[in-house]
Amino acid sequence: MRRWLFADQLGPHFLDGAHQPVLLIESKAVFRRRAFHRQKAHLILSALRHRAAELGDRALHLKTETYREGLRRYGEVVEVSHPTSRRARDFVRSQEKVTVLPPRGFVTSHEDFAAWADGRRGAARLDDFYRHARQSHRVLMDGDEPAGGRWQVRVTDGSRSQALPPAPTPVEDDIDAEVRDDLDRWAAEGIEFIGRDGPRQFPATRAEALDRQQQFLIHRLPHFGRPDEMLSDDPWLAHSGLSTSFNMGLLEPLPAVRQAEEEYRAGHAPLAGVERFARQVIGWRDYLWHLYWYLDVGYPASARPKGTSSIPEWFATLDAESVHARCLSAALAAVRDRGWAHNPMRQAVLGNYAVQRGWRPTDMVDWFQRAFVDGHEWAMIGNVVGMARHAELGSLTAEAYAVSGAHINRTSDFCAGCRYDPKQRVGADACPFTGGYWSYLHHTRERLHGNVRMTRALKQLALIPDLSEIVTQERARGDAAP
Ligand SMILES: Cc1cc2nc3c(=O)[nH]c(=O)nc-3n(C[C@H](O)[C@H](O)[C@H](O)COP(=O)(O)OP(=O)(O)OC[C@H]3O[C@@H](n4cnc5c(N)ncnc54)[C@H](O)[C@@H]3O)c2cc1C
Ligand code: SF4
What we know:
The protein is of the alpha/beta class. Helices cover about 50% and strands about 5% of the residues.
């Protein structure tokens, strides 16, 4: 039967056999509905069209207004792997001529996750899931023990990252030129985009993705694992830049982790970096994917975090120039210029600022999804709604995340050149992250009471002499660009 592939199902592991016919549908309505980053739109269309070209006669490639119209034009029964969003899942389920297959592109199956989580109601934590995944899939195991004797291995080298060779940039071709022309035309017709156009920075084909993976294994994996670091002159550090390739289905996560393990076993990469990579990919990534579906039914509305205000224009439109706070301006500029920023920028700067200002989580989820090339709704429940927000996902994860300017100062070189001072809580030089942090704790102290991670911070809060001044100052600062 013909297999319908969404744009995040493009690798060979989404097909069965070398001859299976394929349906690819480009829906313009997807881009008409919401303003995506221009480079995200480019990457999606480029990847779909490259896949169609690779498959040749095997692929029926339709350019339509909606998926519904594409299916109608094809007219016969198709099968599709379980889509990656609830909206798409509900749509394919509602179609008579579509057979929905189990999901692909993740490591642990839905059934295995459900069986594991059901047995731990209320305590289905990431750390336990990660162990479960390591054991089930025999990743970094020496017999029954974790390689090196510990499940989590810290990087002990305290020095800052050295400059690493840049990740390979894909070479654009005629397909990219055609995509660029189409997007220019769509923009002229009134379809809105955010962010700047620029050379495509992320793989659109499996070959490009494998190339990036190989370069990562050689150059970056040995330095991987300093999760909190941010440097103003190096947007990539040792990060892999592989999230789009995993999320578009160009790469398979488990083989990527196995290859990283081989680098460790061969003595080419230290255990700390390889373990961290495994934790991010078969741990965090799979965990969030499964929570998204698992909590579909079990996540009580009362547990959903409440924000009060919507995202201000300067943030929503990536107006980095209007921002003086150096870390925040750099993070917005990174997203504006490439639709990507590494995890500490997303978490300690962008997500953290939104938490402190009480911006609505649903708006932040929508923004992250549209502004980031790798943005997917399933990745948000923990990263935006959970980790970057002080929300309790039931008691499934106790992660809570808000930090002050002191943390950003400790983990980056931004503060040295900033017009604000991370140590100042009040006054003209007061860092908006520091003032914002204490003001936020003040406003949420009752909700945070009992959260073990916040006990120390709440004790400190009680000792701050100028708290009311801070609160008044931050209220006055409001949502204006800092
Ligand atoms: C507020 C916020 C929003 C995020 N939104 C997304 C998103 O929409 N899509 C997405 O894939 N990731 C998201 N992340 C997770 C993470 O920031 C990105 O996966 C990572 O920055 C991508 O860059 P990389 O490939 O270089 O990652 P690396 O640092 O090289 O990590 C390797 C791989 O591990 C996985 N990974 C790492 N950290 C996480 C994490 N926290 N959660 C899930 N997977 C992880 C990714 O697949 C990534 O490619 C978000 C994080 C935060 C704090
Ligand atoms: S002083 Fe504050 S605003 Fe400026 S870079 Fe440091 S943390 Fe960011």
